[in-house]
## 1
Amino acid sequence: MQSYSYILWIPLLPLATFVVLGLFGRKYLKTSSGLIGTLSLLTSCLLSFKAAKQYFFVDGKVDGIYQKIEAFKHVWLQFSPGVSIDMGITIDPIAVMMLVVITSVSLMVHVFSLGYMKGEDRFATYYAFLSLFTFSMLGLVLSVNIFQIYMFWELVGVSSFLLIGYYFYKPSAVAASKKAFIVTRFADLGFLIGILVLGFYGGSLDISTLIQKFTTVQSPEYISITTASFLGMSMLTWGLTLVFVGGAGKSAMFPLHVWLPDAMEGPTPVSALIHAATMVVAGVYLVARLFPVFSMDAHALDIVTYTGVFSALLAAVIACTQTDIKRVLAYSTMSQIGYMMFSLGVSRYGGEAGLGYMASMFHLFTHAFFKSLLFLGAGSVIHLVHSNEMKDMGGLRKLMPITHIAFLIACLAIAGVPPFAGFFSKEEILTAALHENTLVYGVALFTAALTSFYMFRLYFSIFWNKEADVHGEHHGEGTWTMKLPLIILAICSVGAGFIGFPEFVTSDGAGIETHMDIASMAVPVSLSIVAIIIAAIMYKNANEKPAKVATAFGGFYRAAYKKFYVDEVYLFITKKIIFPLIGQPIAWADKHMVDGFMLMLGNLTAKISAAIKGMQSGKVQYYALYFFGGIIALSLLLIYIWK
Amino acid sequence: MMLNNMLSLLRQELVLSVLIFLLLFIKLGKDRSQASLSVIVNIALLINLLAGLWNMGEGELFSGMFHTNATIVFEKSILNLAVLLISMQSYSWLKSHDQVIEFYLLLFTSLLGMQFMISSGNMLMFYLGLEMSTIPLAAAANFDLTNRRSSEAAMKLIISSAFASGILLMGISFIYGTTGTLLFDALPSKLTGNPLQMFAFILFISGFAFKISAVPFHLWTADVYEGAPVAVTSFLSVVSKGAVIFVFVSVLYKVFQPLSHAWYLIISVLSVATILVGNLFALRQDNLKRFLAFSSIAQVGFILIGILSGDHQGAVSVIYFILIYVFSNLAAFGVISLVSALTGKEQITDYKHFYKTNPLLAWVLTIALFSLAGVPPTAGFFGKFFLLTAGASKGNYLLIAVAALNMVISFFYYLKVVKAMFMDENETPIEKLEIPAVSKLALYICVAGIILVGLASVVYEHINSLSI
């Protein structure tokens, strides 16, 4: 077997870039920092591809099963005998897949930002932060130790805080970055306690050891963690649920999703990196990393399933009502991550039963490409019209042909239209759900239709709808550095689905056969197409130009036109009933109740703090009184306990 | 042989005593220039610190009154390091002050008292050390001679600590009355847990709680910290607190081991109250010194959680945390002390847009606050993590959950200061400050400590290898 030690360079290169740009960027490398960052990431990306090629095609497979390899491990801190914190590199199918995803999306974002962020005052700082983020994310996916994951996890949080708050002179950006940081920290709390619980019962922090101990039913660790219980749940369920809470925070699952829409205040390419392909899927990755343990506990899996499916539906409904294009994309991300989560939740470990696991990872992979494409496309559009609002757009297809085609491809991919990438992965998820849980399947199907609808509402509102009203000088689609990533990602969004994913990434490492049967495909695909058509009817024409729309859409439009009354009813139902009566209340509840709850926590703390401030009066005699009070209270406590 | 033994075991105390006498002689002689004096003192402190790093075995002196071992020497070295850093940081402030020698005399006497206290093997020795470390500090708190608040702080400190000492002494008397001995080694076998002993123990532990400012014995802290000069405040919050916690751990773990069921309960209650109250008060402070006073109260609550574990791991995590706390808190106080000495500004609102004019100081303060808040990868995170892990070993998850929740709350107010420095607009930010090289060096050492103590595992492993 060849050595994998070069993988160490994949995260180290961005780290080095961060150090160099952070120290010298602002003074000496003001203009070249973008190029330095991009080149260093290009090297990382090439190394990742080399690793993927070597692992998947040369020597990763032993006896038909992909092995977990520890390429590098350094005992960093011997905590107590058996428990140590290690820094190391794990290579297994999902780690290698994530390497490819992270480095290639990050590379695209680096290239895109060359044009998008050009002329920014803190250009070098921006690239330094991007490198730091990429480093943390790479370190996270390669971790061997659950504590190592936690450290990089926090580092991801810190660097995304820096990136979201990049426009620190905008109060909304500052508020958003703070909110993102605090909400995810809140969730990380759960993660930390979860680690303590698992580590305490498992007697180790090493992931492989933990998995091995907790999946052996006879092991003393498994017996002790399943027999100990707290508030009616076993400690295994508690530990896993708490770890999942951490994952749900980063992955914006209900009710910890409130930070995601606000986080759109960051620069758009940053959203493409953080909120499409990397940080938000960290939670999914975490569950997948510990999946063998999760699969031992049905309760924890149920929690994952229902959180996932509910978030998917909720986010899709809200996405239909948003007018800020980045917010639509934010909610759509949340919805798609919900898919990945419940797909893991309905999966079991090993063989055919592990279909959901494979599907989830597959969707993570394809979603990374088309969603970052959507964000970058939105970035191009925003760059041109200087607004995030749909009403300021329309008719842009002539002005930005490449963006238009790329965006269309991404929309088709997310809508699950064959043969685009999203179709394959979503199909696998739906099949997995159908086998396991019909309720989840039904909701997922409905959400898929909604997804097509709101994505095409977005697409038509941006590129069709009315004549473009961009006046005067404009820079079209920007420099080639902004166009090239769109083209590459569009190619990936078409091609990524054809990779024989089930061969490579499965729950137990052995390839599985999947069957695509026409009958089960027909329902979601036709639902998606119907939803697209409805979106087209509602948003494609700006009503005063029926002729143009009619010629563009041909016979189909005329048929729809004849059923005008049905159309009106639909409009009435959606615009007058669904939006105000269902969509808006949900959006409202989301904004006021879930957000409000977080706010309330803050206010409550401030109130209690005000209430007890009388204690601190400044008079020494009162201090003595409290001192005595303390002694008496302690005495009473001991008397009460031991009468 | 005897003399050699004494010299090696007492080496840190001897260096300090020689230094104190030297300063007295200089004081009696004609005035030296202040600048050269600071250099001499700092070099002497460095020698003292190095004396501690030189490992020279263990043993006891004066028929068990004084004992020392590798752990105790390490603890003393942490205190020496902290005093050295404080001395370097207060360079600007002392330059403008006439009574430099007195200031050093007071601090060093107090430090000497602490070293005897840590090494004590007898209740009386412990009490003497404690008093020797407290009384000079009350005088030092008054060192801003023209400032009324400084006098107020000194008065409050001396009155409340006299009160606490009285309570502590009463506890010791009762313990002596019921057991007939004051020797640490002899006490455990004689503690039976009868009601009078329990009461004595409560009095004793209350005295300790006062010194480490655990709630509800903490009320003096904020007033004293705010009024005293920054150098004294940082001494109080880092050195004095650290020394008492070291003793607290060894007394609880060794002497009061038979009553561990009682102190487990008491410390659990104190720790929750301390964390909660410290955090809630820190939220609403506008004065940075007061803010750090309350935040350091909350930090003590976390230390108490680590103490709960009652075994080797608990003691190790506490010592490790205090080392980190020295670096983090002194980095924060170092910046505040510079700004306060050069401009007199101490409010959080004064620090708005501080980053634009003083990027170095702003970054140092940010790193320090992140470490205090426990954000990885700073050392503060590792410190807190080990404390919580040690506390969790008794399986009291509710307590750990409360503590972890408070880590998030504390995060909120630390971030408030960072936000003021980096993001808030200000028409008249603090002007660009000229930082003396020696103070700058102290800040660099602190930052290096904050980063390296966490990442370099050898530090933790070294502490772990010591027998507690």
## 2
Amino acid sequence: MSLRDLLSPFYVWQRAFEKPYTTKRPTLDRPGAPAYRGFHINITETCVGCGSCHTICQNHAIDMVAVDEYVGRDGDSGLRPRFDYGRCCWCGLCVDICTAGSLRMSNEYAWISEDPGDFHFTAGIDDKPWQENALGYRRAEGYHLYPPKRITMPMLPVEESVNTFDEVVRGYDKEQAKKEADRCVECGICVATCPAHMDVPDYIHSIRDGDYEKGLQLMYRTNPFPATCGRICTRRCESVCPVGILGEPVAIRWLKRFIVDQVDKKDYPRILNEPIGESDFKVAIIGAGPGGLSAAYYLRQQGHAVTVYESRASAGGMLRYGVPSYRLPDVELDKDIEHILAIGVDIKYDTEIGRDISFETLLEDNDAIFMSTGLSVPSSMRIHGEDHPRVLSGLQVLADVASGRDPGIGKKIAVIGGGNVAMDAARVSRRLGADVTLLYRRRISDMPADDEEIDESQAEGVVIVQQAIPVEVLDADGTERVCIKWGEAKMVDDPKGGRPRPVLQEDRMHTETYDCIISAIGQSSDLGYLSSEVQDQLAIEWGRFKPVEYQHTMMEKVFVGGDFANRTADAISAIEDGHHAARGINRFLNPDAFIKAEMQDE
Amino acid sequence: MTSLNRHTLTGHSAALDFSQPEPVDLSSGKYVKLWQGPQHPGITGNMSLELTLEGDTIIGCKTHVGYLHRGFEKLMERRTFIQNFTVVCRIAVPEPTFNEYLYSHAVEELSGIEIPDRAVWLRTLNLELMRLASFLMWIGGQSGAFGMYTVPNWTLSHRDFVLDLFEEMTGARIYHMYIVPGGVRAGLPEGFEKRARDVMDSTEKMLGQVERVMFNNAVTKARSRGLGIIDPEMIDPYGIVGPNARACGVARDLRKDEPYLAYDQLDFDIITGHDCDAYGRAWQRLQETRQSIDLIRQCLDRMPVDGPFQADMPNVLHWKVPAGETYVKAECTRGEYGYYMVTDGSEYVRRVHVRGPSYTHAIAVMERLAVGCNIADIAGLMVSLHTYPPEIER
């Protein structure tokens, strides 16, 4: 021990004259760091209530509670996270997983309240002083707890696809499908949005488990057309998928297709093995499209004798005659239809109601009727010269191609319209070797067609002329060809706030000669098979039905569904109409059993 | 692996005498039984020592643990792989990030995830900052245990400056939850490097002051020299690791022996001492604190400033890790810290076993070294082993 050891400790006194290390009023003088994980903030307008925060919270500190303001909003569960600060550990995983990016944390960390209930609050709904705080923790750029990007779908290259009717989309392999299925956060917003309420998260789960048979069973509970919908569904589910808010939505449609692709058709009876009930009722179905066959499938399971009347030589309706085979090959459509027929549904082809059998006879002979004859009459362009022999309808061209007939379109054609039928007609024409110009009266961004369809048609060489209003169809003198006169349109804002309206500019007219013009601007229903008396009783408006509950009409035995009875006019809505009508018909035929069954379900 | 020969238990060394002492007759009035803890400032956390005294001298010591048992290993079997990383940090409160790193590393190893370079460096920086913060707290504890309360004020203040850095970097001061399976949660905020260097400079200056008042101190020397001597022969049989072993001259440091993260790219040597007593261990830790500052500066100099900090991850909500088992380890402030993990291919871990250095140091070694000490020195001895009870009771 030295003298130094005795004196040296007194050095501490030097610190007494220096600035202290401590802060006098920590909560006031020392705010949390800019990225501090403090109290939660939720931007409730952006939040869609997917509940991923609730799922990931290891403390069960987050409950999803209904908030009136958001209940019933499209693509929104109507729920918002409610935090329990007696449980929260401020790990911030809820912020990291938030699919909408609406959840964050403020850098506030001190909060005093005498009411313990205050510490249980719905962020963004219950007023808290830190709600407007601009600082605090949020997920860093480049940090993800699920893959934000979709697995790329293998497609036929454009050079090849434009020359063949082979399917363009090739489908995922097992590895790709598993990876894509992995992206699902299982929120179920898709289930609520799907017109048929398909059990999307569960069948995606079955892909992750590699149990495709279970996936198939789940799909058939609500949709007997999975092979079809797995290809051409309008997939409203994907438009609301929360994974798509900050990234790309889960490829729900392709995953559905993947499951069907994995299961051999001959295994369907074993896997699905639908129990067939017992019943003495007879039900007739008019139209073997997706609506009619879906109703037939679910009605047959109740044991009713189901007969489907189809005016054409094959079943499928628009799926067969309106959707080109490069999007939906016949063999895939047949996979769905054959299974429906296999459970004992009787079908009469080439039988037209009103011609071969009268509607009244049908009404007389059956206990209930489901009508789903869709929209089969092309709408008129309402311009002079429209009845020219070289003006064809898109539906006709598609039906001809589907039936193996040559539509005789020629080498240079124009397609009028901006919907999916117009796109199909244009792409089919490209495959038949024609140069295709597509005229649309509004802008490409206004087109009702799928974005995917628009992009692919352009890639395949369809020239889209936007803001082009057809004015008149003229003879091309002395030839088999046809002239169209069209004018450029100016988009004028709607003073009432609706979408901008195209206004023809008289001084900017063009005339062009084509081998043919394909008109595809919409279609309407053909109800000629119904007498005017029946039509009156059914309360038809503008060729469309407005069914009441369970797809019932004003006539006792008659139920309707499909394109002419709903506003969305797509396959999945028709399928749901059929399923829903089947429930309605059961209720109508056997109310007691129906109520019993419903109660059991609950 | 060490410069010492391995010793077998068959040797006749007194250090390796594991025989139990004869029970004493308490009714004789010659002895006193005394409980120190579980709430006692001289214990590093909630555990207790059952001491038998003869006069001032301890003739028997038995440790009692369990006051902090929260069942972490079991909790982890009921939580998904992503949820667990918020639990593991609680296993060692003063240095949570070693748990975060090892847990993440084990999961990554079993699922075959390779983390990007920037994440490697950010993790290294994070772990070294943690080491620094932990050592600063320890110096304060050791000084306080010998009755000098000025030094804790300095070192804990500087620990708080390091925690400020953590707060900026990770969003929290104690439970950072920054190292996550797949990488880290964020890059460095703007201006962090400058502030980190400032803290390093002031801490280095403060350590000089600590050396003057605590190490060149007649009282400290009088009380810690010769206290709790670890016989080098005890190192292997007792599983003594970290600074406790290095202070006895055993050059054993996982950062050098089996380099992980970016340690093979950093320039440093293993520091060893030769005094095996409490003073020697304190001196060892002071030098290692300085080394830590140096390593932090090296990290700041060399780490990449941009690029990804997270590997491509599956959806963590239903993440299944392939079946397998692994043992991963790292050199924490107190020695080898290890995670043994078994997975069965499900969404949950089958078994995790956490190996913390406190288990041996606070129980077997403590029971051994306490015998013969003065009752007044028990606190100083316990702190000199640098143990954390929560880590004993995972």
